[in-house]
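Fold tokens
===========
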Amino acid sequence: MDMTSQYQSEQSLPPGTILDPVAMLVRDRYRRARHWRAVERIGRYTVEQTLRNSYRQYHSILDPRDQELVEASGIDLTVSITKHKTDVLVAWMRDLLLNSSDAPFVVEPTPIPELSSSGKAKVVQQVRKKLLGDGMAPGPQGIVDMVRQLKAQQLAAEQDEAQAASRAMQQRIEEQLVEGAFRDELLPFLTNFALYPYAVMVGPTPEMRPVFAWRGNRAVQVLEPMLAVRNVSPFDYFWSPDSSSAGKGTFDIVRERMTKYRLMMSATLPGYITANVVEALKHFALPETNRDWLNPNPDKPMVGSLMWGLDESIDVIRHFGLLSGRELNRYGLSVDDGEYHETEAVVLGMWTIKLMINPNPNTAERPVYATAYQRTPGKLPGHGIGQIVRDIERAFMAALRGTLENISYSVAPLGEVDYRRIQRYMAEDQIGNVMAGTVVPVDPDPANGGRPAHYFHTVPNVTQSTANLMQFFIDLADRWTGLPAALSGQPVGTGVNRTFRGIMALYGNALKGVQSALTNLDIDLFERLGNAYFSFNMKFDPDPDIKGDAKVKARGTSGLLQKEVAKQNAQDTLQFIAQLAQTGDIPPALLKWAIDQALVAAGVPLDQFPDESTPGEQQAQQQAQPGAPGSPGGPAPSPSPLGGASVPDSNVVASSAPGQPV
């Protein structure tokens, strides 16, 4: 079965029908979902308010009440802790996730506890063949031993086949991720994940995309179906009130932008209803038609004109959810009226321009995934950095304005002047403007008291106290977000905090919150996305070599930090042992172990080297000193069967208990 065969053919509404029933239903669901997002609360604020607050904090756009404080103080400086913490976390996640060429999930064969039915039949045939070929029965115990041996061999063969199929499937999925531009979509997704109460990704969905293909002796551009993923702005995602997570409620809606050119091209693609696309284009091309028929995304403001250019976009609604057979039958889909099907519908204005039943082999799984930096039980939206540091940032800005205002009293004069004594020597617009390096003539003191005409006041300087208060709020943001200051490259403290090993020892507990957030990525996005790719390939890919009994697991992004720490620890250990090796007091086996550990942490496949020619052993032989253990004249170590560190034979014998093999 071809993937594109799942698309609905080009059909419009039956003649005489005025209203599009699916378009009406989708528009109604969109209104209800938008209202739900405007009233559902996360703490003090609704989801809609939280989205806009996070957006404004990241871009240093002040709220009206904070703007009044700025106007009153005259200090319009803004320092966004939200942006700083978000950028630090995103840079850290990009380094962990995108510096590796591997997919974020891995395909592994399902453990085979016993033989399959076909495997058991093969064992029976092999036993029968051996018995008939030998011509002599080996006895009851011999037959039992033979069956056990053949079963073990057949089980190992089936496991090897499953492992080979899993590797082929893994390679195929990685190719599809590259074709679908997964890494490009993951970059903005990570920013939304860190900043907003939720981040959304859609896919894999079959799309027709232009690619180059060889036709004869030249390359031509053709349209081919491929599985694509797309990052979705949190402002453009809406869900049904009964949704506890993405894809688990009655429907999910994504608001998109499509240009006039893209709409014209889509009219010729499978799955789109050509007549409805043409009617919608005619309607919205009229000068009196408002093309901003949905609320715009603040990231992408609507730009309209009298003439609809090819590069100008318009909102469309992409609906994922349940539709009954009564609605689908009117579009030529042969389903029972009482049945409900997972469908994808694209609506523009009053027209359904695309309608198809979910092509995912797992029809209950929608291609919509959402997760949060900190999940909220029972709710789809959670908590992002924008929510966590909102009050801390406002308090920090109040302390900053107070600091600068107090400094202004110290750097600018504040005092009084006896106007009667200086008025005839200065113009009216100069009175009160005191400049350094000037002499101002004044009349004598009428009271003969010798008092100066100018009196200056000294305002107490509290900048140190307010600076300490600012630092307190910064430290509070570090604790509340779980992102220590050293993640941004700042040295913190002295002594143990100045070394990598000491810092990582302290980070072991400090980064638990970040590791929990990365676990949310594994569970809510990577594992579900990998299963969707796996299901598509199992059903639609014609290659039988990639199909087998396997399952998809997330690689575990929370464990990537431990890998980086292990790599650095291995390098530190190698440097330490190499320095001691210069004295001749280190056995070559220990040096070989340290080298092998560093190579393994760096990704060198030591299992592909024979034991006697591993880089670690060669380096150990070069570093060996005369008289050292393992050198000529010293006790010879025995090689490890696993290619790891060698140990003296005496240690092996001593570690073996009586009656156990060495």
